[in-house]
Amino acid sequence: MKQGKRPTRKQKEAMLFARLNSDNWLVAKSLPDKLHIVHRESNRERIIPA
Fold first, then answer.
1. Which residues of 9-47 are buried (b: 16+ CB within 10 A; e: fewer)?
2. Contact 39, 48 (CB under 8 A)
3. Could you give the CA distance from residue 31 to residue 50 in angstroms, rounded to a whole number?
């Protein structure tokens, strides 16, 4: 799996809307309607609306 990238400001806002702390998540894939994010420590994957 590719390494995740630090989220941009808009991506951080999307994480906040999903009630997630953006400090704990990295962006694995950014699609126009979805964000695939990975937890920094546990490598748990999630998909949230962008």
1. eebbebbeeeebebeebbbbebeeeebebbeeeeeeeee
2. no
3. 8
CA distance 3 to 49: 20
Is the whole model's pTM more than 0.85, yes or no? yes
Residue 2 to residue 26: CA distance in whole angstroms: 11
Q: What is the pLDDT of residue 1?
A: 62
Is residue 15 within 8 A of residue 33, CB to CB? The reply is no
Please answer whether residues 31 and 50 qualify as being in contact, where contact means their C-beta atoms are separated by less than 8 angstroms.
yes
Read off the pLDDT of residues 2-48 as tens digits, 9 standing for 90 and up: 788 999 999 999 999 999 999 999 999 999 999 999 999 999 999 99
